[in-house]
Write a structure and sequence with these properties.
The protein has 256 residues and is α+β, with helices and mostly antiparallel strands. The protein contains 6 helices and 10 strands.
């Protein structure tokens, strides 16, 4: 027997072992598929449908899928009425989107707006002072509230002090009038009562001169009936006078 004949015979024997028709056939004509040697038949056929197969623990059943679908919701669900109520995921998302829509409507577009179209901002109670520059208009001043207190501004009648300004030494205002300068005094007028000139300074340094001109300070003309004005409490505090040629009688009028 040659090799070709051997292969042909083996094929015939193998084909003879398979069933001759489709569908359920007698087990005697079927191949055994179980290690025990029991041939396949209606009584011991393998399960081939989902109903026949056993499901593993936790597998998704149709009931579980329906419950999940109910939690997720559908596109037709209305927006949830509260954040914590029983509602589907779709209903809660719709409620959240409505909140974003409302918030977006309250935010104005970029650019300067009137008060009615702007978002109000309140500084923190411990915020540092905000510098303000520029003059207020009359309308702004009238619209702004002005704080009031019990303190009152007092006016004083001018006080005139007759003093002698010497050549030998420059003297400050307190020394000239023989008393402390009143706290209310914010201005003064100097009247010279003789032909000799006077030189003064307001920076606290001694005025000086080389006849007939002052070196440091401002000269005053004699017999100036209108008086020479000095303004400001700081200027009064630093005021010093000195005669240029001879001692001079002066009248110092304090105002405030």
């Amino acid at each position: 027997m040659d090799l070709i004949e051997l292969v042909v015979n083996a094929r015939r024997m193998l084909v003879a072992r398979f069933p001759k028709a489709e569908g359920d056939v007698h087990s005697a004509t079927m191949l055994p598929i179980d290690p025990t040697g029991v041939p396949y038949g209606p009584a011991n056929r393998l399960p081939v449908t989902a109903d026949d197969l056993p499901l593993p623990a936790g597998a998704a059943t149709s009931d579980a899928q329906e419950a999940t679908n109910a939690l997720l919701g559908s596109a037709a669900d209305e927006a949830a009425e509260t954040d914590t109520g029983s509602a589907s995921v779709v209903a809660l998302i719709k409620r959240s989107l409505q909140g974003w829509t409302t918030l977006h409507g309250k935010i104005p577009s970029i650019g300067r707006k009137a008060m009615s179209g702007s978002v109000s901002v309140t500084l923190a109670s411990d915020h540092a002072a905000v510098p303000v520059s520029g003059a207020l208009t009359d309308t702004q001043l009238r619209a702004a509230s002005v704080p009031t207190s019990d303190s009152r501004h007092e006016t004083h009648a001018p006080v005139q002090c007759d003093v002698t300004v010497t050549v030998a030494q420059a003297k400050d205002l307190a020394t000239l009038i023989g008393a402390s300068v009143p706290a209310w005094a914010t201005a003064a007028r100097l009247y010279i009562g003789s032909a000799s000139g006077v030189v003064y300074s307001t920076d606290g340094t001694d005025p000086s001169y080389v006849a007939p001109d002052p070196v440091h300070g401002v000269p005053l003309d004699a017999y100036d009936r209108s008086g020479h004005p000095i303004f400001g409490a700081a200027a009064l505090s630093g005021l010093k006078l000195r005669a240029m040629a001879a001692d001079v009688k002066c009248c110092i009028e304090l105002m405030g």
